[in-house]
Task: inverse folding
């Protein structure tokens, strides 16, 4: 489902299977869109550009109460997206075929201009502010369950990972980490020697 340059639309009570790019793509000035109560399963190849939900230059949208299963990046916020809410979504088995040890995140801040985003009440493996395409600012993760764990994955298994350019993040009231797996609180200088088993 692609919504481009539109407003006040919705995707509701839909099931999609094994897509090539994104189950739902909000593109170029898509605003005030609701994506609620859906089930998204699988991607075709398990590569880095396969998403459950992708926001590319969209804003003020609501993604709520969806299930994402066997998808590389369940939620990817790209390209000047701001003012959106991602709430009460569930993701499991974030499948990535390129590197069987590398964990991909359920909530992925991935481009310049991502700001004023709220992630609330979600269940998934983690949130990342990467350094691939630019900065991310004023993002709040509130009351989520991020375990930082996918069976068989041993790399990038940190529930909250903020790279260079991730500014003014709020991480509030979340339950983080996997009991018996994470052994270090944070990976910062001078002790940054065990990032894969750190909470931050």
Result:
């Amino acid at each position: 489902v692609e919504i481009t340059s539109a407003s006040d639309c919705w995707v509701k009570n839909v099931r999609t299977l094994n897509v090539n790019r994104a189950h739902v793509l909000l593109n170029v000035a898509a605003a005030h869109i609701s994506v609620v109560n859906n089930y998204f399963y699988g991607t075709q190849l398990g590569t880095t550009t396969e998403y459950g939900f992708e926001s590319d230059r969209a804003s003020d949208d609501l993604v709520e109460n969806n299930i994402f299963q066997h998808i590389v990046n369940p939620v990817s916020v790209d390209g000047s997206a701001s003012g959106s809410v991602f709430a009460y979504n569930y993701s499991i088995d974030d499948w990535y075929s390129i590197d069987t040890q590398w964990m991909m995140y359920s909530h992925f801040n991935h481009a310049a201009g991502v700001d004023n985003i709220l992630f609330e009440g979600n269940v998934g493996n983690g949130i990342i502010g990467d350094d691939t395409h630019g900065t991310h600012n004023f993002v709040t993760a509130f009351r989520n369950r991020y375990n930082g764990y996918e069976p068989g994955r041993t790399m990038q298994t940190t529930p909250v990972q903020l790279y260079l350019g991730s500014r003014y993040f709020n991480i509030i009231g979340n339950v983080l980490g996997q009991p018996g797996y994470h052994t270090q609180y944070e990976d910062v200088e001078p002790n940054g020697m065990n990032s894969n088993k750190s909470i931050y």
Observations:
- The chain has no helices and 22 strands.
- The mean pLDDT is 93.
